[in-house]
Amino acid sequence: MAESSELLGRAPEPVPPHVVEPRPVFVPDPEAPWRRWFAALLIVAAIGLAYANSFPGAFFFDDDAAILQNTSLRDLGNWRRVLWPPVEAGIGGRPLGNLTFALNYALGGYSPAGFHAVNLAIHVAAALALFLLTRHTLRRPRLAPRFAALATPLAVVVALLWALHPVQTNVVDYASQRTEGLMAALYVFCLYAFARGLESGSRGWTTLAVAGAALGMATKENMVTVPLLALLYDRTFVAGSFGAAVRRHGWRHLALASTWLLLAGLMAYSRLNARGVGFGIGRSASDYALTEIRAVAQYLQVAAWPHPLVFDYGTNFYVGDFAAVWPQALLLFLALIATMWALVRRPAAGFAAAWFFLTLAPSSSIVPVVQQPCAENRLYLPLAGLAAFVAIAGTRALGRRGPLLFGAAAAALGLATVARNPVFASELAVWTNTVAVNPGNARAANNLANALLKRGRNEEAMVHIERAIAISPNYADAHNNRGVVFLRRGQLQEAITEFRAAMRNKANYADAHYNLGQAYVQLHQPAEAIAALRESLRLHPGNPRALNNLGIALLDAGRVDESLTVLRQTLAIDPAMPEAHYNLGNSLARAGQPEAALAAYDRALAHDPKFAKAHNNAGVVLLRLGRPAEAADRFAAALQIKPEYPEARRNLELVRPSAHH
User: Fold this and answer.
1) How many domains does the chain have?
2) Is 459 within the bounds of a domain?
3) Phi, psi (5° rounding) for residue 93?
């Protein structure tokens, strides 16, 4: 019997179900909102206590160029000038940083307390952003089983270890380092917003992250690494691999990376070479790389044990060959190998270690920052990675005791910050401390001399100038300062010799040309003075001090109309300069405009009521106008301000008989 036939064929393959990648699942937040608010207030209060003795603060070092001599700050209504500051101010290509300086100036003038208060507020904001990012990360699935219950106290500890570390005073207490602090705050906020966007799928959070990155790029070039660290964050805490991160969140990473275009444009505008950055300006890539091995090791040492802290390491920090740094090179090689291993086997710890190296890389790799091979302010943002690594790894080992122990360590760091703040109370204090801890630094010795010169302590200054020249015989700035002392002593030919030595050792030295012009003004050699001052202005356009002296030299040469033009240009740049009003009065008097001259002298006195020369010259003009009684009052006012003023006394004695008629 035949078997019944069957229809034979290949069974149809099952249709795979549509795969939807689940969103990350977070551990439910058991805390009441008030606990998070309390944690934030604790951070704010701790930072406030640590920096309570840091006011009012002072301006020093780069503050002179970035703030005091940065004329773009004085015209907030001119957005083009504010957002495109002069390259010579050292803040070129950093429009957001310059805008904050301009707002500071508009609200409080050159008040160090105002600038310092904004720096401190930015530091607080950065600490709060770090708290939020750390807490958010500790509650991700990879870390939640071990750390979710401790997320808030551990995040507080990380923020305080970072914020209260005394090395941060190099940014908080140093006005022109605002760009470092603001960039760091935007960097951490960008990562937090990006992480929230990954968690929720929200385009809004990603938009905030991109905006934060763009603002950071407009603040300081070190923001360049944030797209890389965001990709590493995604791989470590969300996607699990770089490939998955790109597949799942590629458009978000591309949007963040697009901010590099803004940075490229700003860097092209700012001419980094003009700020002492880049190749072909005195140091090779290999020299700088060797020096940075020493610098990074120094940063690690300072992070672990912040004593002594050094405000300025100077150019004597450079090393000449590998033999001088092989122990530090070995240490860093092992640290990098450990970081690579951790990224594979302990990704969370690896991320914290990579944070340190990646955020430090822009200024501590092979691109020379010639005048600052080592600067503790560069540790500002990288220290956050170290703080997280230590606190989280320590808590993993110690359990619930970890946050308490590291909280105590943060308190100790806060006390060290309180002790460090007085170093920044004045320019003199900064450089006195720096010379004490780094006696081989010629620049520190010269800058201490600068601070003494500003206080009229010329002979004390000369001691430190000679020391700087002994350390570095071709140090142009020290020769320039020695010339200033000679100028004040009235040794004009010796001063000219020093200013010319400074110019030989430093090309395009605007200040030396300016001082040379001053010497020639005092020698009544107007042709030489005019040439020197015009060269200074070519190198530093719009410098009101140089314009003011050029006005004097032109008047001395009998070129009255040109003098009036230059002095009016000076006052257009700096309307509050009493010397320019006074010199304008002299030019107007020579031009036969006595009433206008009197008005100019009065404007000089409005800005400086103790300007004795303005009273005296106003008296001379009043006497010529046939108003001897008013002239006598002016001469008497000059003598009241400056009793040892022979011209005013002689004028008063001459006018007294006439004043009685």
Assistant:
1) 2
2) no
3) 80, 10
Pick from 136, 135, 168: nearest CA to 153: 135
Place of tokens 């805008």: 99
Contact 477, 502 (CB under 8 A): yes
Residue 595: burial class (beta carbons within 10 Å; 0-12, 13-18, 19+): exposed
Assigned token pair, 117:
């208060």
> pLDDT tens-digit profile of 565-575?
999 999 999 99
- 206-215, 287-296, 495-504: which has the minimum mean pLDDT? 287-296
**Does a structural domain hold residue 490?**
no
Task: Give the three-state DSSP class for 162.
Answer: helix
Q: Which of 364, 395, 422 is the last residue of a domain?
A: 422
DSSP structure class, residue 341: H
Single-letter amino acid, residue 444: A
Q: Decide which of 402, 422, 442 is a domain's last residue.
A: 422
| pLDDT mean over 266-283 | 63
What HEC string does 110-146 produce? CCHHHHHHHHHHHHHHHHHHHHHHHHHHHCCCCCHHH
Give bridge partners of residue 277 from the DSSP assignment: 369
Predicted TM-score of the model (pTM): 0.85
The answer to whether residue 430 sits within a structural domain is: no
The mean pLDDT of 154-169, rounded to a whole number, is 98
Residue among 374, 386, 375, 437 at smallest CA distance from 413: 386
Which single residue is written with the structure tokens 């990675």? Answer: 385
Residue 303's Cα: distance from chain center in Å?
A: 20
**Does residue 650 carry a pLDDT above 90?**
yes
Read off the tokens for 294: 């020493």
Buried (b) or exposed (e) across 320-334, using 16+ Cβ within 10 A?
eeeeebeebbebbee
Structural domain includes residue 469: no
Query: Taking 80 as the threshold, does the pLDDT of residue 87 lie above it?
Result: no
The position carrying tokens 């992250």 is 209
Give pLDDT, residue 316.
86
Average pLDDT over residues 428-451: 97
> Any idea what DSSP says for residue 362?
T
Which residue, among 110, 148, 155, has the nearest Cα to 134 in the 3D structure? Answer: 155
Query: What mean pLDDT is predicted for residues 314-340?
Result: 93
- Closest-CA residue to 598 (of 576, 622, 562): 622
Q: Which domain holds residue 617?
A: 609-661
DSSP 177: G
Report yes or no: 434 and 311 within 8 Å, Cβ to Cβ: yes
